[in-house]
Task: structure prediction
Amino acid sequence: MAPKIRPPVRIPTRSIVARIPFYQQKRLCTTAQEQLLERWMRLFRTFDQDRNGTIDRAEFTTLLTSLEFEGKQSKIDEIFAKLDSDGSGQIDKQEYLKLMQTLTETERDD
Ligand SMILES: [Ca+2]
Result:
């Protein structure tokens, strides 16, 4: 039997992709987007030192300190609270990816 030929992958236009939450786009991703996502997730795993799948306040503080962030703990807590949109005390993968997407879009708009 002849091997099945996969239909060509249709690359959706940016406007269609923009309406889908980033973390659900993997199926539609181009290779470049997949590589970017992979890089972001590698970074996430670096931050997630105890490997429990979330970044807690201590891990976040360590991260910012390693980036030589010159802020008081109260400022770090303020940033953390903004990122932790569901108030769980942890930054999960979805919250993290939303942040990375926002940063990328902000960069693009400049
Ligand atoms: Ca963790």
Residues 63 and 69 are 9 Å apart (CA to CA).
